[in-house]
Queue: 4 jobs
Job 1
Amino acid sequence: MGDEPVIVVGVKQVPDDDEVRIDPDTGHLDRASAPAVMNPPDRNALEAALGLRDDAGGTVVAVTMGPPTATDVLEEAVAIGCDDAALITDRAFAGSDTWPTSLTLAAAAESLGADVFVCGEETTDSSTGQVPPGIAAHLGWAQLTYAEELDPEFDDETLVARRDVEGGHEVVAAELPVVVAVAYGEFEPRPAGLHRKLYAESEFEPIELSAEDIGLDDDEVGIDASPTEVGGMETVEPVERERVVVEGVDELADELAETEVFG
Amino acid sequence: MSPDDADGANDEPVDDGTVDTDAYSDVWVFVEEHDGDVMTVSWELLAEARGLADDLGEDLVALVIGEDVDDVAGEAIERGADRALVADDPVFEPYRADPYGEQFRALVEERRPAIVLIGGTHTGRDFAGRVAVPAHAGLTADCTELGVDDDGLLEARRPAFGGNVLATIVCADHRPQMATVRPGVFAAAAPDPDRAGAVEQVDVVVDEADTVTEVRERVVGDTADITEADRIVAAGGGCNGDLSPVEALADALDADLAASRKAVDEGWVDGSRQVGQTGKTVRPDLYVAVGISGAVQHVEGMNDSDVVVAINDDPNAPIFDHADYGIVGDLFEVCPALAERVRDGEALAGSEADIEPEAQR
């Protein structure tokens, strides 16, 4: 770690789940028409990163991998308080699954000199949660997933996290550098300040980095470097339910008494 | 073979898309244990993987990493594994991603499994995401169906787009083919004490001095297994942090408590009780959704329930479309009233005696 810690926070632009409509022709969800928003778990990651800066100083740099339109989420991150932001963009990234995505973000973390890379738990558009451990694996760094609390012991080159595990929690100390995935819903995000918001919308321009800029060859990323492929899609038939709305608990009890549950 | 390969360099996994897929065989299941306690999902995977291994004509191998885990390995054999690979060392207890990842990487390079299945717990997802990278494996997240196609390729199916669509993910050119699997989807394999299989201790390649993490504290209490419950009462965001009405109803119904993601994220209910896409799949006789709006991600985890009851004060809540019986009302009034009615009503209390003839029809 240098004199001041560099905290990189990953954010992603995703379709707004609340606005996704069903395509009447195909019956599939029409995600293309939904407005793009910041992946909600990334708001918790932003807060965790800014909290580390509050405690230990340093700088927070937001990073996203996506098309130029993804600059919107970087502006939002800067408005909330990030010192700077980087757009990792290249046609070579198209079709990346989680393997090259985590490779790309790992290379970006190195280029930006990250000591800590904070991510959200998962993205709402694919829900794998694979990218944070993937970044750590590519870099050979420690990883702290499902983090509920963070305690920087940067003088000892250590970050301590309380992790949510099945049925309880654990406290894990990791040597820097480290990748953190913040438990969704923890780290209540702070609001954007007015001046910062104006700056983000008017003056701010993100750093723009291509695959080459972060030291990656085109064939290391994108669809060719992605081990998985979608082999097919089937629409799931909805489960038929009675859909009876009853007037009160007595009627409900009568209905239930006739089911096999209580038969 | 080129001269360069003569020194054993051909044992390294190839990372240029030209993996010799025929060199990989067998189905591995990562048996997740903490201090000797095995997560139920691992036994569920053994049951499902038994079928895959039989379809492929290959071995089902239990991978057990931990400290003093011979009993776990033995139980894995009893529950369907042909063999067990055991990496037994204090460095592996409690779980940490970095030593587990390094051990797994070495094992995959040496043994070359075709398929590796891992439970979709926090630990399983932490592990899978880490180990898939050095192997350049294809990793599918939180599958709900598994199969093999005519070419022996793993077909890992997972709900996509919030559950309205089932996507099949394949990994044609890379090995191993890895998947995490959502807990509760498959029935756990029952132990058969007569089953025999080899338990092999493998070389431990990790030294404590090389680790970069230290577990300072581990507190685990409630590891409820809601996947086996016959009756479930589930709390959602409508509870506003007060679970007492839900707990009272669960108590009256002799049901297990579960929760939507919202209630878990708010910290009201432990994550081991979460139902849905990033939680567990449940299939009780009775599922009562209390104050749950009914997002597709939640519905998907409870759709196999026999009878679904919804209690919500919003008549337009989507949960009513996925329920057999719904009550539009304030859960803080409906739950206590229903709990009382259940206690009073012998038919609902499960008593078989003295049921009024009317109630039997």
Job 2
Amino acid sequence: MATLEIKDLHAEVETEEGSKEILTGVNLTVSSGETHAFMGPNGSGKSTLAYALAGHPKYNVTSGSVLLDGEEVLEMSVDERARAGLFLAMQYPVEVPGVSMSNFLRSAATATRGEAPQIRHWVKEVKQAMGNLEIDESFSERSVNEGFSGGEKKRHEILQLDLLKPKFAVLDETDSGLDVDALRVVSDGINRYTEDGDKGVLLITHYTRILEHIKPDYVHVFVGGRVVESGGPELADELEKSGYVRFAGKKEAAAQS
Amino acid sequence: MTESTLETTGPSGLEEHSHGGTEVPPASRGHRFTSYDVEAFEVPGGREEDWRFTPMKRLHGLHDGSAAATGSLQVEVGGDSAARVETVGRDDQRLGTAGAPADRIAAQAWCSFTEATVVTVPKDTQPADAIVVTVHGPGRERTAYGHIQVRAEPLSESVVVLDYRGSGVIGENVELIAEDSARLSVITIHDFENDATQVSSEHVHLGKDAVFRHFAVSLGGDLVRVNTKVSYGDRGGDADMLGVYFSDKGQHLEHRLLMDHSQPNCRSNVTYKGALQGDSARSVWIGDVLIQAAAENTETFELNRNLVLTEGARADSVPNLEIETGEIVGAGHASAIGRFDDEQLFYLQARGIPYDQARRLVVRGFFGEILQKITVAEIRERLEAAIDEELAAAGT
């Protein structure tokens, strides 16, 4: 049983007009076995939260704490966080020319598992995982994400999730830009990852569409860089019907008082 | 002419210039004056188009006649024994047939060498292994002038390695000749000690239907300036020019290419990639392509990419295409200089891969497409190891 605790997290980015606070005090605890949907309008800081958790250098954490099983994540380097069991499926996966997918996957598995996987098992494992996600085998010899379509990139993020099996996964709008078939394939992949009940998921999304495939235990509404309301799956139904108006309005009212 | 420069001077000192036509272009960069007489060239001052990127002081007088020969190159030829190896005097009639000197240092070297090494791959032979020519510099604070000719006779198929090592100041001409229907691959490795200065003019000449492959690798030395001109003696010549360079702290590595298409139905492809790291690391790449009026059905492309790994380094890249006939298959060029991509590093690290390894993966990937084409495994592995070593040095 593992826990990821985010406590009063504040973060800013450097802009041309100076630094700008994006996260304004995020509180959230995710335990293994739980799926938390994180929903909010565009510009609410959802992706910033994802990047700040992963340690992207562009985002500067000014205060707060992120504990993974009691260990301070914010003191770890990007790769240490990944090896500690934190995974970020990116909204816009990066192309790395000249580095083959197979070399990359093996390097990542070696790093996170602490030893190189045995070659025979590994080949089988990758083949199986690629098959599950309906990824053609020829992709192993292609450069990481290079020339992949949006949907292909997302499938490969989930492929990495399946192979690296982190304790906690932050999925940053993994559903965006996917057609109906791809959404099903990717959602199945995420459900396979959680099926043993020992993984925690923070599912960041703008739309409720993916929640038809992945059942969240909790739904959080994220506005203005923090969680403004938390509830069960029924909260997603309300968002589906009424959008974010009630929450965005509430924030404005608070600001005026 | 499109020229681009990337100079990293400080955390926020990123400057990128890209301008076309602001320089006054010389009448033609392709049609060049040549002479075997050193006095036919004026002493360059450093502001001339051909010299403006070169730190003249670090030429140790190669350009102004003050660098007398005080040593000699030691040339050993090993590898496949099928080649004929001769040491000849200045009067050997074969010398100078691939091309005449096009700048003062090349003319100085031509006037100053005392003996030349001629390596001949006999007609219709296919040596199984590479022919390895190892050239040792004259030693610290010594100057030497040299001349090497590699001649691949008709229908031969061979791989020749030119491996430069050691110290000193070197001016030389290298003739690489692929006669009719020969297939010649030449791997040139400039892997000097830190003090070395080398100014080399390579004259490549292709016969009818000759296939020439060149891999130029520059790693060591204080200053290395290589001029490579490819000329076509007849139809059907095919030249692939690939280059890799890694410029470290204080190093100046300069590659100037001229693909002189004077014959119909010939092809050329130039791809050079370089990485730079450390204070005052410099690289210069000049890619000139001339398609003369007679050179119908020419197909040519040139590309230069630079990866600037740290602050304080500067890369210049100048591709230039002159076309005197419209009847061609295709001609193009591309040049780019980029900083080391933090997003790529972040992505790899976010999958648990440690920083040093991630950096290595990205740089290996950058050079990979060229290194993969080197068919001699030993050389490829040596270069991969050398690049890893350069990176490890920067990591500290």
Job 3
Amino acid sequence: MERSRREFLKIAGASAAIGLGARPVIEAVAAATGHQAAPEAQVAHHPEALKATRWGMVVDTRKIESAEQIEKMVEACHQEHNVPMLEEERHRIKWIWETHFHNAFPSQSTDRVSEHLEHILLPVMCNHCENPPCVRACPTKATFKRESDGIVMMDFHRCIGCRFCMAACPYGSRSFNFRDPQPFIKEVNLKYPRRMKGVVEKCNFCEERLALGQMPACVEASKGAIVFGDLTDPDSEVRHVLRENFTIRRKQNLGTEPCVYYIV
Amino acid sequence: MLELAIKGNKTYWTWIVALLGVIGAGFIFYLWQLQFGLGITGMSRDVSWGFYIANFTYLVGVAAGGVMVVLPYYLHDYKAYGRVTILGEFLAIAALIMCLLFIIVDLGQPMRGFNVLIYPTLNSVLFYDAMVLNGYLLINLIVGWNVLEAERNGVHYQKWLKPIIYLSIPFAVSIHTVTAFLYCGLPGRGFWLTAILAPRFLSSAFAAGPALLVLLCLFIRNTTKFDPGKEQIQSLGKTVAYAICINVFFFLCEVFVAFYSNIPEHMDHIKYLFVGLHGHGAMVPWMWSSMALMVIGIILTVNPVTRRNETTLAVACAVIIAGTWIDKALGMIAGGFVPNPLHEVNEYAPTFPEIVITIGVYAIGALVLTVLYKMAVGVKEEVEQG
């Protein structure tokens, strides 16, 4: 008697659970067949979100005085985006990093480079190319150019980790998670997703900050050395700086049309 | 026909068990890689493809090389190859299975592999590579199996197979062309950025594939009652001779263009491989060995005396396999990624787990090849004994 009652309760409980679980499914089917108006998925927009047709950046190397200045930018970026600090050099993840002029511009460097350029380092990151070779290479559209503003973005959940994009990028701007990055993140920023092992990542021009009306983290930390804005707007600050100065872009001859310019 | 593969002597079963052991070891290391990530390999931010993709590239060549027996037989009606076409097709199947496995073990997130099919991306060469490799595998399975079964039953193979057989010829060329396009369409990699890369891949494929077939034919003759034939082996030897000469010629064309034009982006990679760059020269002994092996291969296959002697021909084939493997697998990857886009030299060497996983994949290929060849040879023996 005792036993059968327990069994009855079990079955009843299970049926109730199935019934409850099935309800949203039934509702969804009903909605899809037109019995009820389906609620459209909506993305909330921040009222102060920064918008552009083509985001771009100008790095004024004249305003870079020390390596610490760039380190601050790197730190701001890597903290914002939960970039881990891995011990092994070959596994490192870099969204923005510092390098010599002759590394950033291998075909433009000379033996007789200006004294300033010889002594300083430059920040380098993803160029958010107009014609990104990485996007061309990706077999799953996990990396793509956002149509609205030209930012080259990553879908960390779609990436299969084939690393074709890394071979395709002529700037070495992409990093791969050779191991689980989570134990190596110093302070977790809960406002930005962390990654798992086996996917590629890179600079995203702080699209998550732009959506909230904030400037990219490196721009904020640069103390005026980086200007960021809409390249299609003739009145924007970047366009103003580009009009006033002679600028160069990395590997201009490859036709990728980088959106990061350098004043040297 | 599979029943033919489960009838074997003690040596056969020892070989099978040994292969299974190696596969098991590779699998255990692969589980470790799945758990830890690709960090257990020697790959890095700068050399982001390594031993897996290198061997993948080489084996695409071996698979494409099979067409060197299919084409003369079906297109030129070169009757002698009737005895060996099945060996070429089955070698292609084993090589393609290894290729696909190498791609899978190279993925950071292998469980998402089907994303390539779920989100087909027509601008990605990798999508086309997946299509042609699987297509060529399917073609060889259909053609190889049906033709062999028809032979066993003493009838002519089905008429509908003929167009598929013809299709297999451009498909063989396409798999290696598309694989070369993976590399040579990338703007920032001077070593790969050459229109001759697909022809180079094909020439080394048509040397390495038939060279391996020669060795397999000799092995089959010595261990079974089926003799693939002296004429067949000699014809394959001539194919190898032409292909290895063309392969070395193409390489010298690359050297000329890079060094006479004197463009650093093109020279630096070749310099790294052959003389070292900024004090880094791990590849130097390998590359010179590769060149020496290929030159020895040319001497032994072009010279009629050494080609006709099956012992020296076998030596020639072995050195050509080794030489082209170093050139195309090791050199292609290391040369392409070093120096990196920022002109820094970060070298690559595979790690122990990486090598064990690679050998495991090769063991799977050897197992597939053993089973298929056991079947093919079994049928040939049956037919010849009447």
Job 4
Amino acid sequence: MRQRLVVIGNGMAGARTVEEILARGGEFDITMFGDEPYGNYNRIMLSNVLAGIEDESGIFLNDLSWYAENGIRLHAGVRIDRIDRYAKMVYASDGTATGYDKLVIATGSSAFVPPIKGAHVPGRGYHQGVFVFRTLDDTRAMIRYAKEHERAVVIGGGLLGLEAARGLQNHLGHVTLVHAAGHLMNTQLNAKAGKTLQTTIEQKLGIEVVVDGMTTEILGKNAVTGVKLAGGRVIDCDVVVVAAGIRPNSAVAADSGLVVERGIVVDDQMRAVDEPDIYVVGECAQHRDQVYGLVAPLWEQAKVLADHVTGVDRSAAYHGSQVATKLKVAGVDVASMGQQGAEHADDELIEFAEPAKGIYKNVVVRDGRLVGATLVGDAGKAAVLIKAFEKGSELPENRAALLFDLGGPVAEESVADMPDEEQVCNCNGVSKGGICAAVAGGCKTVGGVMDATRAGKGCGTCKPLVQRIVEWAAGGTIEEDPAASYYVPGVPMPKPELMHAIRLHQLKSVSSVFATLGGDEDAKSKMGLASLLKMMWGEEYVDERDARFINDRVHANIQRDGTFSVVPQMKGGVTTPAQLKRIAEVAERHGVPMVKLTGGQRIDLLGIPKEKLPEIWADLDMPSGYAYAKSFRTVKTCVGSDYCRFGVGDSTALGIALEERYQGIEGPGKMKLAVTGCPRNCAEAYVKDLGVVAIDGGKWEIYVGGAAGAHVRKGDLLATVGSADEVMVLTGRFLQYYRENGNWLERTYAWVPRVGIEHLKKVLVDDAEGLAAGLDERMTASVGAYRDPWKERTEPATPGQFRTSLPLIVLPQVPVRA
Amino acid sequence: MKPIGSVHDIPFGEGRTFSVDGRMIAVFRLRDGSIRALDAVCPHKGGPLADGQIDLKQVVCPLHLNAWDLATGCSLSGQKPVASYPVRIDDDLLFLEL
């Protein structure tokens, strides 16, 4: 029998939680109780309804048919009076009793009305003309009444009060906002920010604002005629809206014996204290002393709750939320997060104010991290700041860049200002308009847009810009792409988990990984899995040729016309007359259309048809240079101390030794190395995945994570060592650590900064985690398993391995150069 | 339907190009043993589709990683479609209809 799930509360928290449970395939018999007689609507949008911007029908999230379609019994307009935790029953106001196996309490909050004289009429509820602003019914009543009256006072200058004041202006002539604290939105903003906001509200919107105003009495015999403040001042009005805050609806829980402080106290799985079958979510929950009144934490709580109650992830835990918000308050842009100002002596407060324009901005930095920020009147930097705040990411050296878009090359281009036809992805020719069209067409993740448009799928340098355009075009409704963390798209696991599962289930072939972990075979995941499995299992790896990319099937690099390039190994870029002669003879005999020197100091034979590859390899009789694989490629060297007047180390010999040892080692991305004989850097070692630089005194510097492709980066200094042997060992250790930890196609220039050079020094040089011996051992095993793939030429590994796939029609062929 | 070759000409999970009445056809042998046939030429930039990687649904062109549905020939990455052809196996022989 299916378990019975009862949800008390049909607001945003209750309904969202049920959606999350359904999304996880949760098999429950679901009953929901809602105090309000409607389906579930977006409470945040009530301000828009009040302001006349949005129609009532536009704010419903789930209408009644949604409940029916999902087999949910909804009791709308029925309140739960009591929970019997022992009998597992809930008792409703209509006299019915309902049993449950799992209970979710999502009762939300209600408006808090301070004890003001005259707010209530004994026996009749609120005084006529007094409203709170919480539900759709409140909003309807307020609109109806306001239309027939003239002057309103809103009590409370927080977010809700400001929204109410702005909305009421739509319906009557004069609005006064009375706030008990010294400045508006004092929970979120400091005094300066609050004053700036006040000036804008008063001057631009024409709302009269009274701060430090304690309302002591609501006047009027039958209907409201005014409010009286503590100093004796009376403000005439005929409508009063109390928006002085909210209080969690926890009375039923408290009466039923649950632990209630400010809200219902929950653990990290969102369960009420000592109640394994009762969950609490949303504004009525108190987690680690925090009660949240915003929607973002609620979404996070609902996910954890659903993971746990469905059993999809019993270890799911909610750790609290960093509350960052960006909103339009009464038409003014406001963003706030974390601290309002400096709290510790060491906190840096960077502040900018331009009162005439209604702009105030600040950021608070502690230990190089953003711990707070406020933006009023110009929230252009909000997205950047929220990201830095939530992720704790590194901040720009020039702190002013946090508050302003500075000129110069470091500034991010404003996405909004870009013309639609501007090309964003220069590799695949995708414009801003193309990206926006994909978003408009329903793609709501960066990965989805990249797949649909191919933007960012070339060299990858435009990815951050693509991401910003997608975020902008989606207007904040961007969805987190879980696949972004997967090692390959077809198996839903990040690399460490995937490797663990592969070891656990002893998966030695790509097809067995799909069968055990991934479900359907995925063409776009095969190559990454093949690389990983080969690295992990070495000789034991079960090599399925279809898992390989064409380059790896035929050990050559496919070209635009479907022919291949052949690059024989030339260790350290050193060759001999005999070798050159042989290459020349082969090129002549086979009419090779183009012979070219590569950037890696080798010779490239281009335009070779697939079916001729084995013959060419046999004629060359040289090992493969691996110029086609995600693997160790070459070691570029300079002539070093042998001939060069300036050389201080034998870079050529070391380069040859490195290539001899690490030839053909596969990894998550290409590995291009160099050894240079002095800091003049003729072999460009500073911009290699691993570059070695000889320095005076017989020492070698090892740089890692450099690049000089689409992305240019100088490597970070990993170590300075005293011998070539140490270079050999550290190189192997670094490459192995990268092989085991880098994401698929993540080059070292991205991986090194991601894990951090200090971490690499600790692990690889100081061996602080005791990993070095294992890394060295596994690398040695891989080195031992090396076989020259070009020996695979007498017997094809598969039927038709080298059979042509070229069509008979004329293609744009690379022209023959004489 | 015409016989075009043996099913053993194609390893599991790969494709091979066959010439049929002067047309080049890429024939794929899926890992579940079934066979699909598409035009051999990628309509994007002329890449050899038989050299692409496949799964049970799609082939990915080796040149620019555009993808096509193996059953219908429809592009999965916004390119023009390729023609697909009925193909079957009889006694290990491949038969194809243009």
